[in-house]
Description:
The protein has helices spanning 13-26, 39-47, 75-80, 109-116, 121-125, 127-144, 155-165, 189-195, 225-237, 248-257, 281-289, 300-303, 308-322, 346-355, 360-378; strands at residues 50-55, 83-90, 149-151, 171-177, 198-201, 240-241, 263-267, 293-296, 327-329.
Amino acid sequence: MSPGTDPTLSPNPLRRLLSHAVAYYLNQLSQRGGIAVEDAALQLHRRLAVADLHADCLLWGRDLLKRSRIGHVDLPRLIEGGVALQVFSVVTHAPRGINIEKNDAAGDNVTLLAAVQDWPAKARHSLLQRALYQAERLRQLERRADGRLKIVHGKHDLRDVLDRHRERPLVGALLSLEGAHALEGNLDNLDALFDAGFRMIAPTHFIDTDVGGSAHGTRKGGLSELGRAWVARMERMRIAIDLAHASAPTIDDVLAIATRPVIVSHTGVRGTCDNARNVSDDQLRRVAATGGVIGIGFWGTATGGNDVAAIVRAIRHATNVAGADHVALGSDWDGAVNTAIDAAQLPQLTAALMRARFGENEIEKIMGGNVMRVLSTLLPE
Length: 381
């Protein structure tokens, strides 16, 4: 069956062209030519159930069922790369002049993008509605994907994806929210987000929120009282907590009260790239102590380099500190960054890990097994 046109995309061809141009400019590949993939690495990769913890591709107004030269992710490339589970993150606010050191809420690039893409009026003016609108984009993709994409709501869906992944092309999709500012200060909005399919939420993105401080905010404080209530409610609802972008005090506060594993969906490590975006060795150990996972990013600010070798160096440091049971992939594909590889090129990472003398069991865990194990604990039935 040939899928029809994505009904969530703008009917205006000039608006689509402008949106695609922005996406192309902001999401490119930093490594040209790639690296060789030996037969042994390719055979191993084909046996893996690959999982990636972070991609922002719902933001850009592309039909993700069609293979594209724009960005890093679409369903054909995910299938070619052997991805069994992709976390689709939703961005609802991105401050003007965005940087990793200090941002306030003045100005918002998503407002401009929403106007260019003809988002519904309510999604242009409400952060909550922006989240719900992008969740609807993913549901439309699932409906049109002819059984090749399945949204993961709970453990049963995850088991189904894993059982069926090797039999035929199938990608599991899990919805994540990048920043609790989309709650608009009301924890009852977690119910609407849960009903829309969200199963992972971060307290912050690039700005401080009512819940807690961002590593890139103006105050960079810890959890508020609302934030403490947010942690408890998230755990009751079995929504995973994502500490990517959180300030050090917010990470400390969450880890002090969390009773379930936590996730850092996309980050680098200060041991190989020391900046405000990345996590320290102490944070690596403490996240691992919860039973959680840390997703290593694929872009230069995370790894300190522009190639697959830099990703491997960050993974090696993280495994040395936290253990191979607690390291995963967190690409940040289509996150307005240049990444070393796109979804179709994931066998290159498997090959590079083999050359770096990671064992097959370690590679299986890092490339997806750890994510599957943790989500099997965190997700509702």
